[in-house]
Write a structure and sequence with these properties.
The chain is of the alpha/beta class. The protein folds into two domains: 182 residues, Rossmann fold, CATH 3.40.50; 113 residues, Phosphofructokinase domain (Rossmann fold, 3-Layer(aba) Sandwich). The chain has eleven helices and eleven strands. The strands form two sheets. A seven-stranded mixed beta sheet has the order 3-2-1-4-5-10-11, with helices on both faces. Strands 7-8-6-9 form a four-stranded parallel beta sheet, with helices on both faces. Helix 7 links the parallel strand 7 and strand 8. Helix 1 runs parallel beside helix 9 and helix 5 packs across helix 6. It is elongated, with a radius of gyration of 22 Å. It starts with 6 loop residues before the first strand and ends in a 9-residue tail after the last helix.
């Protein structure tokens, strides 16, 4: 990128995450501080195709730092997956005079960013998803807030489960990853956590966990299930058939996406938004802004999409020690 950047666009795409607004605010204010105009693209890649935009100023992004969701709205776009749709998006960029686009979202958003960059529009990605499953970054905006929301809900459930000496099965989000479920499970002292990263042996991972917990003197049990594992309702039915209990099933669902972002997500989103614009200012583009070992780094989009993130299975050892006081090594780790 040799030419001076005069105007950029910013969009949010895919599932919303707490902290997206903080990232939008940082992009806009950093751009303006560098003499760059900023245009908000509403409804993600779909909005770019259909020229759904709004000019943004320092004032227009005031008081959004603490708001959940995204003021730019978000949508998934099947049309953008077609060559015709992407060419229409390029036409919108040319019509608006955009020298680049900041795309805030997850892997799906970044795959779209890669395709747009191949058509000559520089793109910088900012990872924001409560699933924390973007391979190139240690942390994604929204994860910590979603974890705390789930923890608060489960703590409340535990109060009533303890009072009635019951078993609770709680399904948390995370798409096909277990980061959210395992983190939350450790934080709430779950009896067991089921994640999609490993095959489940129901007798070993659920029935025996409940039995061991009961023998240890517990009269209520908390089972945390990642949505990628399957239906928490079915897990509850299997528990009923196996141990004769009548579990209460709670699917937290989209409540985990809502609410004001916490300090970590506001601060991380602000730093990422700043560095996204800085990449354009310094003549770079077509990269993802990522966190590595506490710092901010830029990773080329193609390389970023090839990276994989693995669940830290050793955390199960910690969970077992906290729950049972011994390592069962049930997970082959």
């Amino acid at each position: 990128m040799d030419k001076k950047i005069k105007r950029i666009g910013v969009l949010t795409s895919g599932g919303d995450a707490p902290g997206m607004n903080a990232a939008v605010r940082a992009v806009v204010r950093t751009a303006i501080a560098n003499g760059i105009e900023c245009v908000g693209i509403r409804r993600g890649w779909q909005g770019l195709i259909h020229s759904d935009f709004v000019p943004l100023s320092r004032e227009s992004v005031g008081h959004i730092l603490s708001r959940g969701g995204t003021i730019l709205y978000t949508a998934r776009s099947e049309e953008f997956m077609t060559e015709k749709g992407r060419l229409k998006a390029v036409s919108t960029c040319k019509m608006l005079g955009l020298d680049g686009v900041v795309a805030i979202g997850g892997d799906g958003t970044f795959r779209g960013a890669l395709e747009l960059s191949r058509l000559g529009v520089p793109v910088v990605g900012v990872p924001a998803t409560i699933d924390n499953d973007v391979g190139c970054t240690n942390y994604t905006i929204g994860f910590d807030t979603a974890c705390n929301t789930a923890i608060e809900c489960i703590d409340r459930l535990r109060d009533t489960m303890q009072s009635h000496e019951r078993c609770s099965v709680v399904e948390v989000m995370g798409r096909n990853a277990g980061f959210l479920a395992l983190y939350v499970g450790i934080a709430v002292g779950a009896t067991t956590v089921l994640v999609p990263e490993r095959p489940i042996d129901f007798q070993r991972d659920v029935v025996e966990r409940i039995q061991d917990s009961r023998l240890a003197g517990n009269t209520h049990f908390m089972i945390v299930v990642a949505e990628g594992v399957g239906s928490a309702v079915e897990i509850g039915k299997r528990i009923h058939d196996a141990v004769g209990m009548d579990p209460r099933v709670t699917v937290l669902g989209h409540i985990q996406r809502g609410g004001a972002p916490n300090a970590r997500d506001r601060e991380t989103a602000t730093r990422m938004g700043y560095y996204a614009v800085n990449a354009f200012v310094e003549g770079r583009g077509n990269c993802i802004i990522a966190t590595q070992e506490g710092g901010i780094v830029e990773i080329p989009i193609e390389e970023a999409l090839q990276r994989k993130k693995h669940l830290q299975m050793d955390r199960y050892r910690i969970m077992e020690i906290m729950q049972y006081g011994t390592k069962h090594n049930l997970f082959g780790i």
